[in-house]
TrEMBL record:
Gene Ontology terms describing biological process: lipid biosynthetic process
TM spans (from-to): 12-30, 36-52, 81-103, 109-130, 174-197
Protein's name according to its UniProt entry: Sterol desaturase family protein
Keywords on record: Membrane, Transmembrane, Transmembrane helix
Molecular function (Gene Ontology), one example: oxidoreductase activity
Record keyword Endoplasmic reticulum present: no
Pfam families: FA_hydroxylase
Domain of life of the native organism: Bacteria
GO CC annotation, single: membrane
Residue ranges annotated for the Fatty acid hydroxylase domain, each copy included: 114-247
Length: 286
């Protein structure tokens, strides 16, 4: 009985996040519900992520706290608060950025969100790729790579300045063509759900979708602790840009554990939240 439940959870986990999570968000926005419901939806899926990682983990060691719970909570709170603020103030300046108002606002919200995901994925992936090539960007991005375990919640662990860079790279093309505020709200939810999926410690089934989607089985290779191995799989939502860059990689025989994570050149990278905010600006930069 337990095995049957576990198998069912592994089967349904990916569609639960991709289809149900985003589907509920689309419904809430389309029906004009208060934005607070989107925050509640995100919290529900964070809870699902934690609970399911206990039930069917990829690696049980990834479930063991490493004095990182408070830090990851602060990262998530700060970064998602900035996302909400950014969307909220968009009407004040968004119109100034429109170069060609060609966004297909008449399309159903689901198709508008899918288009926004595909466009933003290219910009975010390229910014991510550049962050492994330019030392000034790597100093900010190294915060995210300092993790010693992979679980859904630390997908939200980023230096706020690096999140800003990726956000600008992903949303500027959308703003240029007049994307509406409600689509950007949905995009924020989609990004959070995807980060939970991408860093998840749930051993969920992916099948051939791993060739197209940037899910956890693929993204773990990006967190390998050396540039020689980890400079692969930069995509947020898909592997499409990685395939164009020649950085898509997967090895079905490889098992990745805690010893493979972190930054090999800086094994003692600060773990405290406030120290991580300041680390990119110190002389002993990573």
């Amino acid at each position: 009985m337990i095995r049957s439940i576990t198998w069912l959870v592994r089967l349904l986990y990916l569609p639960l996040f991709l289809l149900v999570g985003n589907g509920v968000a689309i419904y809430l926005v389309a029906e004009g519900y208060n934005q607070g419901w989107l925050v509640f939806l995100i919290l529900v899926f964070i809870g699902i992520s934690f609970a399911t990682e206990k039930l069917t983990p990829y690696d049980r060691a990834f479930n063991e706290p490493q004095q990182d719970q408070r830090r990851d909570l602060l990262h998530a709170f700060m970064n998602e608060s900035l996302n909400v603020i950014g969307v909220a103030v968009l009407p004040l300046f968004g119109g100034l950025l429109v170069l060609a108002p060609i966004w297909p606002s008449g399309w159903p919200l689901a198709f508008q969100l899918l288009l926004a995901i595909l466009i933003s994925d290219v910009g975010i992936t390229l910014a991510h790729f550049a962050s492994h090539r330019l030392s000034s960007l790597w100093r900010l991005h190294a915060v995210h790579h300092s993790v010693k375990r992979l679980y859904g919640f630390n997908g939200l662990m980023k230096h706020p300045l690096h999140q800003l860079i990726e956000t600008v790279a992903g949303t500027t093309p959308l703003l240029f063509v007049g994307v509406p505020q409600n689509v950007l709200m949905l995009l924020v939810v989609a990004v959070v759900l995807q980060l939970l999926l991408q860093h998840s410690n749930v051993a969920y089934f992916t099948g051939p979708l791993r060739r197209v989607l940037a899910i956890n089985a693929v993204h773990r290779f990006h967190h390998l602790n050396t540039a020689e191995e980890g400079d692969v799989n930069f995509g947020l939502f898909t592997t499409l840009t990685d395939r164009l860059l020649g950085t898509a990689y997967f090895d079905s025989e490889r098992t990745i554990g805690t010893k493979d994570l972190g930054i090999a050149s800086t094994p003692n990278y600060p773990a405290d939240y406030w120290q991580q905010l300041m680390q990119p600006f110190r002389r002993d930069k990573t």
